[in-house]
């Protein structure tokens, strides 16, 4: 039996941002979240407990018990965290990339070897001439419909202009102006 991993929006944003950073750090929080708050710290602690993020090895540091808040500065996304958001493998695992099929990179992606995220998949669907229906985006990402709608809202907040059209009786979304 497969166990579904449920993450809240804040956790998803933190993991997604960390997966796009070269060092994989969760902090500082992205501009879309704003300042670091107790809610951000709580979300990071939850990710640590679930193995989706990991603290740096501090065994060689003189102070054996740094404050929780200071210790979280170095928290990084783990391979499990990347898998939970569909962001692919950890940079330390790139040596084994030849064992895995090329399907992890999107055909429309630039010449980057970085795996495509779910939001990248949504963007690719929305950039097509025919756009994408909610059902197509849900099928491509594995997200629930309300999560997919929230992602569309997030894209709008980032400056993408998303037009709503009809394809028969079905609503279709398409990016008309890039951010």
Walk me through the structure.
With 179 residues, the chain is of the alpha+beta class. The protein folds into two domains: 86 residues, Arc Repressor Mutant, subunit A; 64 residues, Arc Repressor Mutant, subunit A. The strands form two sheets. It has a three-stranded antiparallel beta sheet. It has a two-stranded antiparallel sheet with strand order 1-2. Strand 4 and strand 5 form a beta hairpin. It is elongated.
Keywords:
179 residues, alpha+beta, Arc Repressor Mutant, subunit A, 2 domains, three-stranded antiparallel beta sheet, two-stranded antiparallel ribbon, 7 helices, DUF3489, DUF3489 domain-containing protein
Main beta-sheet strand count, sense and barrel state = 3 strands, antiparallel
Q: What is the architecture of the largest domain at the second tier of CATH?
A: Orthogonal Bundle
The CATH class of the largest domain is identified as Mainly Alpha
What is the first-to-last residue Cα distance?
A: 41 Å
- Characterize the overall form: elongated
Strand-residue fraction? 5-15%
Total domain modules: 2
Mean pLDDT level? 76
Number of strands: 5
Number of helices: 7
As a whole number of angstroms, the C-alpha radius of gyration is 18 Å
Q: List segments where confidence is low: pLDDT < 50 over at least 5 consecutive residues.
A: 89-113
Class derived from helix and strand content? alpha+beta
Physical arrangement of strands within the biggest beta sheet? 3-5-4
InterPro entries: DUF3489
Biased composition (Low complexity): 74-88
Organism: Allosphingosinicella ginsenosidimutans
Region (Disordered): 21-40, 54-117
């Amino acid at each position: 039996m497969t166990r579904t991993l449920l993450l809240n929006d804040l956790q998803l944003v933190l993991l997604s941002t960390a997966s796009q950073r070269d060092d994989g750090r969760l902090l500082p929080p992205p501009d879309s979240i704003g300042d670091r708050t107790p809610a951000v710290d709580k979300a990071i602690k939850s990710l640590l407990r679930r193995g989706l993020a990991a603290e740096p090895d501090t065994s060689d540091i003189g102070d054996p018990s740094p404050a929780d808040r200071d210790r979280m500065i170095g928290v990084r996304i783990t391979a499990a965290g990347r898998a939970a958001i569909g962001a692919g493998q950890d940079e330390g695992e790139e040596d084994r990339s030849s064992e895995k099929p090329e399907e992890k990179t999107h055909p429309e992606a630039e010449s980057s070897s970085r795996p495509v995220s779910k939001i990248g998949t949504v963007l690719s669907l929305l950039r097509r001439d025919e756009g994408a229906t909610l059902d197509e985006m849900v099928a491509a990402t594995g997200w629930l419909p309300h999560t997919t709608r929230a992602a569309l809202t997030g894209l709008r907040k980032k400056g993408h202009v998303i037009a709503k059209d009809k394809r028969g009786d079905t609503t279709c979304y398409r990016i008309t102006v890039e951010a």
